[in-house]
Amino acid sequence: MISSNDFRTGVTIELDGQVWRVVDFLHVKPGKGSAFVRTTLKNVQTGNKLERTFRAGETVPQANLEKSVMQYTYKEGEQFVFMDMETFEQAPLNPDQIGDGVKYLKEGMEVNVVRWNDQVLEVELPNSVVLEVTETDPGVKGDTATGGTKPATVETGATVMVPLFISIGERIKIDTRSDTYLGRE
User: Which residues are 152's β-sheet partners?
Assistant: First the structure.
């Protein structure tokens, strides 16, 4: 159990048999009446958002999430097969369970898999990945004054906007959270 006074961004709680993550919280102490905590919650399974108010000191069950490091080994049909690095058990996951990060998955990549009651909630990719550019337009010499960008396709099939001087075969670092170019590698 966790008190509403201990809510922080990122804390996960159980409400109505589902897992909710605290996105935003505000402790309010009005001049008249008792204090309360106004929160914005996000459902980890569906992505829905909910605003809810709790009395100060009210306790709610905290969701016990298990994180395990797994390695992406191969793709079988539509399923992505991951191997637990401690027990060496294999677990197939759907693209829906992985989310938007599926476009950056590369064989051999280690990710954090978050589970609740033996159900996969999300797959956390590293904050940045290094991938090779497989397709992009050639850069035009002298075209850098504007600081322009062009689309580039990387080895996993994802498309990222990169500076004009990047060419095919270069390895670039990409931020997986914002889909942005970070630099050459």
Answer: 136, 160
